[in-house]
Amino acid sequence: MYQKFRKLWKAFWEPVLGLSFFQWIVAGLMALAIWFVYFTCRKRVTNWETFKKYRKKPAIFIFWHGRSMMLSPIVCLGGMRAYAVASRHKDGRMMAKLQRLFGLKSIYGSTSEGGISVLRQGVRILRQGDYSMCMSPDGPGGPSLRVQDGALYFAKMTGAPIIPVCYSASHAWFQNRWDRYLVALPFSLITCKVGEPVFIDSKISADEFEAVRKKIENIMVRQVREMDGEFDLFKVEQDLTSVEFKNKLRAEREAKKANKRARK
């Protein structure tokens, strides 16, 4: 019965969610909720000087796919002038509308779709010299906590530095999805850490490129582990993809059904 209701609800909800007008309504409600959480929480930002230095310059700010919620009001109030990379999927377009409400423009595409177009647009924007970029190096479908090459190519082709950023919260809820999206709860302590800039030489070799990629990944994993560890939060898995997570949930549901049939 539940599965039938779920299919009917999905058949109704998905077309509605694809409507631009409805997406703006949902994005507006989400923005209000985020601002409410932000203003009811205490904040502690580490290395704010680096953010101020690069917020209106060509730089690539990167953060894990599951750690974007509270970064939005921080960069908005901090006066950042930037573009954010968003998926072409309807969920990505709604998130792009949400980011627009926080002052971020959008480039549509991802490593799996429209990658060349994103690279061209991003390089052009960074070379203009008056905008930075924001992107999740493990999006849009994982593997989780793994840095893909996109941000590094931007840095290599433009000379812009890569700056890893992360946030955590003393009271939080993790969504049951592949990226374990962290939702900060009201009246928490919000911590935000801005990493040191990492530059990539335009003539870097393939081996050196991979070494820098791994270095950045290690920095970002250490960021999230240390920050979550401060509040004794759930340890987010590494190498989990969207497809694998959905298959895991499907297998768990089938196993529960089999157990119920066996008990009858």
Structure, explained:
This protein is α/β, with parallel strands linked by helices. Helix content is 50%, strand content 16%. The protein has one domain: Tetrapyrrole methylase, N-terminal domain (Cobalt-precorrin-4 Transmethylase, domain 1, 3-Layer(aba) Sandwich). It is built from 9 helices and 9 strands. A 7-stranded mixed β-sheet has the order 1-9-6-2-5-3-4, with helices on both faces. Strands 7-8 form a two-stranded antiparallel ribbon. Helix 2 (20-40) packs across helix 5 and helix 6 runs parallel beside helix 7 (150-158). The longest helix is centred in the C-terminal third of the chain and has 25 residues, at 206-230. The protein is globular.
Identify the notable features of this structure and list them briefly:
264 residues, alpha/beta, Cobalt-precorrin-4 Transmethylase, domain 1, seven-stranded mixed β-sheet, two-stranded antiparallel sheet
The radius of gyration over CA amounts to: 19 Å
Q: What class do helices, strands and sheet pairing give?
A: alpha/beta
Number of domains as seen in the coordinates: 1
CATH architecture, by name, is 3-Layer(aba) Sandwich
Mean pLDDT: 90
Q: State the fourth-level CATH superfamily.
A: Tetrapyrrole methylase, N-terminal domain
- Biggest sheet: strand arrangement: 1-9-6-2-5-3-4
Low-confidence stretches: none
| The top level CATH class name | Alpha Beta
Order of helices and strands: HHEHEHEHEHEHEEEEHH
Major sheet characteristics = 7 strands, mixed
**Approximate shape:** globular
Number of separate strands: 9
State the CATH topology: Cobalt-precorrin-4 Transmethylase, domain 1
SS element count, helices: 9
State the end-to-end distance: 17 Å
